[in-house]
Amino acid sequence: MRIVLDAMGSDTCPGPEVEAAIQAARAFGEELFLVGPEKRLRPMLEAQGGAGLPIRLVEASDVITMEDKGLKLALKAKREKSQTSMAVGIDLVKSGQAQAFVTAGNTGGALATAFFRLGMMQGVERPALTALFPVKGGSCVVLDIGANPMVQPEDLVQFAVMGAVYAAKVQGKSNPRVGLLSNGEEAGKGNDLVKAAFPLLQASGLNFIGNVEGKELFGGEVDVAVMDGFTGNVLLKSSEAVARLITDMLKQELKSSPITMLGAALASPAFKRIKQMMDPGEYGAAPLLGVDGLVFIGHGRSDAHAMFNAVRVARQAVQADLLASVKSAIQEQVAALERRQQNIEKESV
């Protein structure tokens, strides 16, 4: 197994990526591609004791930055001989030299590069960026968290299928419960998109439990929560902000008196476990489901620990044969839709 790590993705690159590559090579003992400018990466790799490890440096002289947008970004993503670290890395997956690509770079850049260079799975119209939300009793697969601000009801069904496969294959959840995020639990609640998607999800063959609100999502009542990318991105950023607010307020209150400081010291192990569960770095990176290859996108603020976990999550996806499983599930869904359409046409004759 070979994983490609974009060395030029994170906000403080390439330090976190080089350190993560060394940790991953030592932990897993497998060859890892580290993509970026070799003249910059090799001295860092050697200085940190990574010279003898199974890390192959792959030259990439260009990078997609956070400032790249519109036509400039599209050209960097699409050009056949593009030398960005994302293009070079994803081409390694396309050619079969590696099984997964990991980056903490520009999300739009990663999405565009994956779309142009890998293409979409047959039967999938739009890719979905996926995240694992910490919830009561574990975690919930949430998609889309930002790839598609505007979608059709049929897209949400595809997101649900892909999310259910991810929950089953990578998280080991049997017959995962799928919920549609809405402003109420009743079937008639929601905007036009949610109302139109509800009956399609009911007929999908998935373990669809209906509409869910935030309290059901964070209460651990669903394994997969589906929504459009605009809603998902707002949910993600709001959740992260609230988590930071609560953490900061708790720190202030615990330092307010000697008694609370003593209580904080006694409860320190519990606080550490909670912090770990709420830390996005523990989940590493989010899979971009729907493109014809395994692509994982981490947070720009990722440190070495987060990047190591991103590589770990990508390895788990490869080991679980996630790509083939998603393809199979989508084809089954397409076939089922065709059968239903044929039955409708027969009944109308």
| Biggest β-sheet: strands ordered side by side in the sheet | 3-2-1-4-11-10-5-6-9-7-8
Sequence stretches where pLDDT stays below 50 over 5 or more residues = none
- From the coordinates shown, what is the CATH architecture of the largest domain? 3-Layer(aba) Sandwich
Q: Which percent range describes the beta-strand content?
A: 15-25%
- Taken from the alpha-carbon principal axes, the silhouette is globular
C-alpha Rg (nearest Å): 21 Å
Order of helices and strands: EHEHEHHEHEEHEHEHEHHHEEHH
Query: For this structure, what is the CATH class of the largest domain?
Result: Alpha Beta
Total helical segments: 13
By CATH, the superfamily of the largest domain comes out as Isopropylmalate Dehydrogenase
Span from first to last CA? 53 Å
Mean pLDDT value? 88
- Kindly state the percentage of residues in helix: 40-55%
CATH topology of the largest domain: Isopropylmalate Dehydrogenase
Structural class: alpha/beta
The number of strands is 11
Largest sheet: 11 strands, mixed
Number of domains: 2
Describe the structure.
- By secondary structure, the protein is an alpha/beta fold.
- It has two domains: 1-124 and 290-322, Isopropylmalate Dehydrogenase (3-Layer(aba) Sandwich); 129-280, Isopropylmalate Dehydrogenase (3-Layer(aba) Sandwich), CATH 3.40.718.10.
- Helices cover 51% and strands 16% of the residues.
- It has helices at residues 15-28, 38-47, 70-78, 85-94, 107-118, 153-169, 192-202, 214-218, 229-254, 258-266, 268-278, 304-319, 322-348; strands at residues 3-6, 32-36, 55-59, 100-103, 128-135, 138-143, 177-181, 207-212, 224-226, 285-289, 294-298.
- The chain has an eleven-stranded mixed beta sheet with strand order 3-2-1-4-11-10-5-6-9-7-8, sandwiched between helices.
- Helix 1 packs across helix 12.
- The protein starts with a strand and ends with a helix.
- The mean pLDDT is 88.
